[in-house]
Amino acid sequence: MTPESARQMPPAAEVLRVRYTSRLPASLADLNGPRHGQVDLPLHVVWSGLRTFDLDRPRSRMSLYRVVLAEGQREDLAAYLNADLLTAQWPVLRTLISRTVRDVWETAFPQLPVQAAGAA
């Protein structure tokens, strides 16, 4: 890579920001995923390790949401995320995902709470 071509390439963070922004649903209301039970993620979302998650177990649910936010396409977000669950766990979830994912989601959906209800 020449110094000139390096100057023309966007920073990696900007490439990721564009990628995550392009996957966003139009509205949180588009997130109609399940609220309870077992969820098996497809290989294009999680290709290694655990693929089955139990939404009734908070840690398992949080793991599923982390994976889908990081690796899912727009259709996956709508199919596997639930708007009410996402909003309820966002104050903790936002600390477990990458800064880029967090910034993209909070910019697009300012109604996502940055701290738990009732927290000072």
Topology, pairings included?
Elements: H1 3-8, H2 12-23, E1 38-40, E2 52-54, H3 58-71, H4 74-80, H5 83-93, H6 99-108
Antiparallel strand pairs: 1-2
Helix pairs in contact: 2-6
Task: Give your account of this protein's structure.
The protein has 120 residues and is mainly alpha-helical. Helices cover 50% and strands 5% of the residues. It has 6 helices and 2 strands, in the order ααββαααα. The chain has a two-stranded antiparallel ribbon. It is globular, with a radius of gyration of 16 Å.
Order of helices and strands: HHEEHHHH
How many separate helices? 6
* Residue windows where pLDDT falls under 50 for at least 5 positions: none
Looking across the biggest beta sheet, what order are the strands in?
1-2
- Biggest sheet features: 2 strands, antiparallel
Q: How far do the termini sit from each other?
A: 50 Å
Q: Which structural class best describes the helix and strand composition? A: mainly alpha
- The proportion of residues in beta strands is 5-15%
